[in-house]
TrEMBL record:
It comes from the Eukaryota. GO terms for molecular function: zinc ion binding. InterPro entries: Znf_RING/FYVE/PHD, Znf_TRAF. It comes from Eutreptiella gymnastica. GO terms for biological process: regulation of canonical NF-kappaB signal transduction. This is TRAF-type domain-containing protein. Keywords: Metal-binding, Zinc, Zinc-finger. Residues 87-106 are annotated as: Disordered.
Length: 181
């Protein structure tokens, strides 16, 4: 920034200046402090955002398109969440068409076996979805913790560099005062 600040207030100004660079906790980019809110709301590709389909997962913005394809819920009719229509129904075939008798008079697959398989798959699906959500949450939390640790390390290094700069400036000032005396 172009603000004139007394040397004695410089450290405080650097810590509060809206033009100071700060690291995004999600993507680790250096962003001016004044722009961080906009960065998180609109630009950061790694910030977690809630699934717009309503499944409850929070996904990094850059991965949302892939998540929406895999999510399995579609937003229709003003917020009504609907699972995709099975292929056999969407193509006009009646459900369980594979279980109908063939020309030889035998069923290609017994209805009972097909229904049991569907029941088993439906019983496992919620547990798998919950496990996926938990894994995504843990992964996001771990990534955020790593980014915070990196930001802290960088802030410590920056503070040390500033302290060394101020110490050198103080030594120069003392030398100048001593030379004048």
């Amino acid at each position: 920034c172009n603000q004139n600040v007394r040397r004695s207030a410089l450290l405080q100004h650097r810590q509060a200046c809206s033009f100071r660079p700060v690291r995004c906790a999600h993507c680790d980019k250096a962003i001016q402090s004044k722009d961080m809110e906009n960065h998180l709301e609109s630009n950061c590709k790694r910030v977690p955002v809630p699934c717009p389909e309503g499944c409850g997962a929070e996904i990094p913005r850059r991965d949302m398109d892939a998540h929406r394809e895999a999510c399995g819920l579609e937003d229709r009719a003003g917020g009504l969440l609907v699972a995709p229509v099975p292929t056999e129904l969407s193509e006009g075939a009646p459900p369980h068409a594979s279980a109908l008798p063939t020309s030889s008079g035998t069923a290609t697959k017994p209805i009972a076996e097909e229904m049991e398989a569907e029941v088993e798959a439906n019983a496992v699906a919620p547990a798998l979805l919950q496990a996926q959500k938990e894994l995504e949450a843990r992964t996001g939390a771990a990534a955020q913790a790593m980014a915070e640790a990196e930001a802290e390390t960088e802030a410590e290094a920056e503070s040390k560099a500033m302290a060394e700069t101020y110490a050198a400036a103080a030594a120069e000032a003392e030398a100048a005062v001593a030379a004048q005396a």
